[in-house]
Amino acid sequence: MSEPSPPPRYILRSHFSGLTILLIFLDDDRIYFEDGSERVISMSTRTLRPKSSWKAHNDELQEWGENIITATGSLSKDQSSEAPEFS
Description:
By secondary structure, the chain is mainly beta. It has a domain at 19-74. It contains no helices and 6 strands. It has strands at 19-24, 30-35, 39-44, 50-55, 61-64, 68-71. The protein has a 4-stranded antiparallel sheet with strand order 1-2-3-4, with no helix packed on it. The chain has a two-stranded antiparallel ribbon with strand order 5-6. β2 and β3 form a beta hairpin. The radius of gyration is 14 Å and the shape is globular. The termini are far apart.
C-alpha cells in the first residue's frame, strides 16, 4: 500500500467558496486566486496574508504596469492551463 499524503504546510483561507484558478508568478512575491464567487485575492508569499481582493468583472486577470494586477473579469477553467497574456 502507498504511504499517506503529507499534511499541507498552509491552507488558503481567504476565499469565500472553492477556488477556480490559482496563478503563481515567479517574479512576484504574491499569488493570485479566484474563487467560485468571482472574488480575486492577492496573497503575499512571504506573510501568507491577503494583500488585496476585489470582485472580477468580465474577462480575465491582466497586468497593468509593473505592480498592478487588474481583473477585467472572471477566469474560466479553460484558461487555467494557459499562461496569462500581458500587454
